Backbone:
């Protein structure tokens, strides 16, 4: 019995060993077959079942105007190519490759004409014959095994190999004959280029900036981009966060969702930008200036409604707004980054120091000089004094250098540190950090090693200090705002998909920086600059809007090609009785003064800004004598009748159809008796007459007749390539021309 049991165990063990041996041999055999005989098959399978990580690039955010208009956004453009030699890139068997080649050749031969007609309709720069000649040249080079001008794999679809097409054009082109086939047949492929589009041309170009991708860092993998302006300042907000995905067979699986960039809403107003740019461009052209800039600020909020920076281009023939440096534009954004001695527009600021401290009174006066010496320096007035003494208002209106030097030197010669400390309180050393390129103002103080006795009198008239236009206008805006100093604001909100994520409300820097007495004294003086006879700012006077401000001429602020250039300025606010806007205009010219150049530009800006703001009630435009009747294009009169009925306009509908799905066609007619309709029968076998119709109705009727319409222009139809009344042949192409 025991022997029998041992035999069973032995046989079971042998069987178990045989099973494992057979299993091992099978695995080895299968692995060998897979690695040798089936190797190519599994490599082909791997091509369609590969799993890998792929980054998802976020969409860069938009830049919006103050009322939400799109100023900068992302667009995509494409270069289109044909790869005639693409079959070599697929791991086909010889039989399959030859079969695909034959199919490809037959489709190209049969549909090339239709493809070229479609391309000509989408890109009318070239005729169908020109497209056909271009593509046949590429085909013939490939068949003859010639490399040709562009090669076999990257032959441009269009005769112009530098042509970029829009996304809409690409979509239409990809549906054309041949190109709509599989890529093995068409060889059609695209190169995609993303770019930032400015929808208002050069407006605020140096402030909006730019974002051009240069490539990716090999070490970090991060995008390297050439950035300027707001695109640089708010890069972290606009750029978003990349996502991550992988593919499994034909499925795309998102591992980390992409976070698209947020939008920034600025305080810039497109209409005001346009006004400022035109006024500045016209002024610079008239005066022959080398460059000029404007800032327009809203008094109550500190919102910057416009920044314009214009300078001559490299050729010196036209004014452009650019964020790049060139020989005529050393600073990308003059208004924020140009540090210059401001000249006489600094005088009200220096005067405000003494008025605030009580060391100067509005009734103070000093002796008048055409020229005088102080601390070993000669000081000269541009305007010859008309009286023996000048009071505060006269010093400002005549822009008297000798008067300012006497009054500031007399008040602070024993305590110059108090003067420079007060300037700092006024923001004359502040950087508001609106853009990365914004410069920090500078002036010497008694603590500086370079400080000397003449510095005080020099600063009183706008020298020995370097200021930006932004700092100057912020102070003048404080005068206009009755002493409340507002922070300049360029961005008001960060948004995502229209919803506000973060808001930047107007910010008060100092509730009452200037006393009422100081404000009243300065306003009186600045008003006199424009309105008093013979004053330096007389050319800013307007009979349409009241203006107050100050001229400035800073001599020899820079030297180029052996010529000295002056900074000519005018800064002020309007309307005087209730200031709404503060504005600064500066330009660089080799001669002249701010009163004869920048003051004129300022006046044009103020008049046009206030004219645009004039709004009248719509009822005032109503014609109470003649009752106007509406008009409409020829076409679907059922839709016209429906619309007029909704507007409660009585019409004589006659026998027109009331079914919007099966409408009547014709024209609306109106006379003194009212509105009626002329109905025309539509015969689907006859080419319809679409002259006078809009694009929608014209295309509908042509397609209903079996024709293939294409349109050019906009407005109403004025011509059709196939005359009405002819028999409609199915598939015939008809070109319809539209004009306003």
Residues:
């Amino acid at each position: 019995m025991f022997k029998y049991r041992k035999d069973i165990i032995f046989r079971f063990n042998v069987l178990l060993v045989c099973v494992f041996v057979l299993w091992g041999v099978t695995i080895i055999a299968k692995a060998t077959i897979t690695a040798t005989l089936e190797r190519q098959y599994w490599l082909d399978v791997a091509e369609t079942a590969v799993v890998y990580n792929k980054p998802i690039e976020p969409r860069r955010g938009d830049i919006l105007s103050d009322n939400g208009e799109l100023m900068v956004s992302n667009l995509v453009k494409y270069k289109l190519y044909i790869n005639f030699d693409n079959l070599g890139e697929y791991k086909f068997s010889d039989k399959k490759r030859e079969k695909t080649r034959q199919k490809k050749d037959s489709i190209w031969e049969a549909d090339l004409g239709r493809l070229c007609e479609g391309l000509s309709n989408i890109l009318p720069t070239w005729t169908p014959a020109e497209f056909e000649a271009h593509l046949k040249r590429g085909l013939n080079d490939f068949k003859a095994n010639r490399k040709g001008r562009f090669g076999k794999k990257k032959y441009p679809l269009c005769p112009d190999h530098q042509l970029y097409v829009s996304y809409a054009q690409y979509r239409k082109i990809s549906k054309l004959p041949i190109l709509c086939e599989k890529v093995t047949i068409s060889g059609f492929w695209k190169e995609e280029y993303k770019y930032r589009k400015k929808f208002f041309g050069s407006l605020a170009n140096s402030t909006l900036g730019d974002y051009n991708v240069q490539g990716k860092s090999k070490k970090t993998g991060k995008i390297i981009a050439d950035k300027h302006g707001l695109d640089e300042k708010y890069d972290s907000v606009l750029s978003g966060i990349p996502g991550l995905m992988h593919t499994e067979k034909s499925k795309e699986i998102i591992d980390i969702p992409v976070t698209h960039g947020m939008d920034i809403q600025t305080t810039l107003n497109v209409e005001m930008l346009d006004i400022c740019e035109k006024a500045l461009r016209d002024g610079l052209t008239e005066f022959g200036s080398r460059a000029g800039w404007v800032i327009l600020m809203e008094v109550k909020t500190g919102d910057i409604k416009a920044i314009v920076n214009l300078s001559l281009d490299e050729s010196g023939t036209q004014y452009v707004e650019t964020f790049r440096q060139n020989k005529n534009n050393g600073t990308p954004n003059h208004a924020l980054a140009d540090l210059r001695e401001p000249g006489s527009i600094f005088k009200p600021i220096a005067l405000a120091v003494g008025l605030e401290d009580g060391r100067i009174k509005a009734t103070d006066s000093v002796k008048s000089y055409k020229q005088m010496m102080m601390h070993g320096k000669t000081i000269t007035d541009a305007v010859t004094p008309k009286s023996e003494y000048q009071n505060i208002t006269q010093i400002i209106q005549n822009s008297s250098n000798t008067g300012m030097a006497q009054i500031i030197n007399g008040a602070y010669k024993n305590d110059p540190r108090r003067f420079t400390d007060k300037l700092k309180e006024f923001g004359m050393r502040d950087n508001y950090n609106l853009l990365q390129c914004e410069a920090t103002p500078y002036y010497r103080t008694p603590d500086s090693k370079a400080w000397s006795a003449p510095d005080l009198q020099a600063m009183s008239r706008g020298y020995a200090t370097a200021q930006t236009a932004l700092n100057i206008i912020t102070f003048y805006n404080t005068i206009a705002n009755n002493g409340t100093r507002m922070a300049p604001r360029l961005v008001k909100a960060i948004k995502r998909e229209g919803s506000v994520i973060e808001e930047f409300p107007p910010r008060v820097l100092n509730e009452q920086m200037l006393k009422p007495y100081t404000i009243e004294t300065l306003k009186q003086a600045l008003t006199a600059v424009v309105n008093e006879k013979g004053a330096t700012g007389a050319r800013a006077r307007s009979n349409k809007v009241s203006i107050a401000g100050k001229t400035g001429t800073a001599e020899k602020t820079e030297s180029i090609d052996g010529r000295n250039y002056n900074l000519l300025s005018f800064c002020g606010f309007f309307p005087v009785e209730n200031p709404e806007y503060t504005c600064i205009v500066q330009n660089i010219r080799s001669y002249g003064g701010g009163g004869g150049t920048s003051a004129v530009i300022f006046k044009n800006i103020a008049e046009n800004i206030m004219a645009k703001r004039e709004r009248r009630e719509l009822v005032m435009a109503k014609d109470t004598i003649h009752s106007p009747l509406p008009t409409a294009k020829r076409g679907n009169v059922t839709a016209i009748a429906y619309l007029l009925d909704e507007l409660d306009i009585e019409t004589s509908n006659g026998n027109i159809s009331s079914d919007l799905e099966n409408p009547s066609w014709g024209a609306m007619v109106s006379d003194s008796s009212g509105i009626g309709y002329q109905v025309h029968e539509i015969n689907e076998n006859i080419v319809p007459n679409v002259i006078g119709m809009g694009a929608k109705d014209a295309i509908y009727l042509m397609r209903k007749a079996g024709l293939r319409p294409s349109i050019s222009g906009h407005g109403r139809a004025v011509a059709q390539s196939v005359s009405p009344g002819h028999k409609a042949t199915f598939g015939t192409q008809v070109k319809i021309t539209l004009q306003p």
Observations:
- The first helix runs from residue 2 to 35.
- The first strand starts at residue 53 and ends at 56.
